[in-house]
């Protein structure tokens, strides 16, 4: 394939979430209200975990980083989508499209791997409590945190490298509200069967394996805590149930999008919308609502701020 000289498309036209102007304005208002309410809550979670000395355990260290990744993930797509709702012509440059795609998979891949790290943390804490302080020491936690960032970077670089080797000579209309692999690949003016298989392997298969591995690990944890004391059992079950909810929220749409051949379905845009715009900001909130320590720390921080 000839690469550099065959790509003549300089920009892509985004068809958007819907063609109805009234629906676009309604979604714009709803998303704006949602972000104005939920986004400060996510920043409060990050700030609370950073400032409260009682939240120094690895669980909260990883939770703070998850909140940061979720906020970053939401900012990759949502601001431009809101701006496009108010614009007649929804255009993104070729370089801008590739950049958006890179950060989408960089942060998304890192978040998925961070959930794997958090599952390992819960496994050690619940199934090997005597070894917890040794295994999950501060140096190990920072090493474990580095792994999702590196993994997300490698995953995203592979995605981008495969797309950069595709020629785009027209048409240039993306049937979506952001740039993602399935829609971009379909616009290449060459046979993309092999590239699609590589993409499905890189995104879909890895997502599915992580998902099944996470469910299996929490199944082991659930079986282990059945013989624990009532207090320890209830706390462990509450924490792990929250983790499983987040896993289902994050991996469910990703598996639907990336583990099948890249054929457009009517529900694709709706799934992508919740996956990239709504669910990321809900993840830390769900954790917080089910975690008494974080809620108490947030109240202390807010009371301290009011007094000062």
TrEMBL record:
The portions of this protein that span the membrane are: 25-47, 59-82, 102-124, 144-168, 205-225, 237-258, 270-289
Provide the protein's localization. Cell membrane; Membrane
What Gene3D superfamilies would the database entry show?
Rhodopsin 7-helix transmembrane proteins
Location, primary (coarse class): membrane
Domain of life from the UniProt record = Eukaryota
Recorded topology in the membrane? Multi-pass membrane protein
Q: Which residues form the G-protein coupled receptors family 1 profile domain?
A: 41-287
Keywords assigned by UniProt? Cell membrane, G-protein coupled receptor, Membrane, Olfaction, Receptor, Sensory transduction, Transducer, Transmembrane, Transmembrane helix
Its GO CC terms are: plasma membrane
What the entry lists under InterPro entries is as follows:
GPCR_Rhodpsn (IPR000276), GPCR_Rhodpsn_7TM (IPR017452), Olfact_rcpt (IPR000725), Olfactory_Receptors (IPR050427)
Query: Pfam families of this UniProt entry?
Result: 7tm_4 (PF13853)
Q: Give a yes or no for keyword Cell membrane in this entry.
A: yes
Q: Could you state a single Gene Ontology molecular function term?
A: G protein-coupled receptor activity
The similarity annotation says:
Belongs to the G-protein coupled receptor 1 family.
What this chain does, per the record?
Putative odorant or sperm cell receptor.
Q: What is this protein called?
A: Olfactory receptor
Which species is listed as the source?
Answer: Phyllostomus discolor
Q: Which gene encodes it?
A: LOC114490339
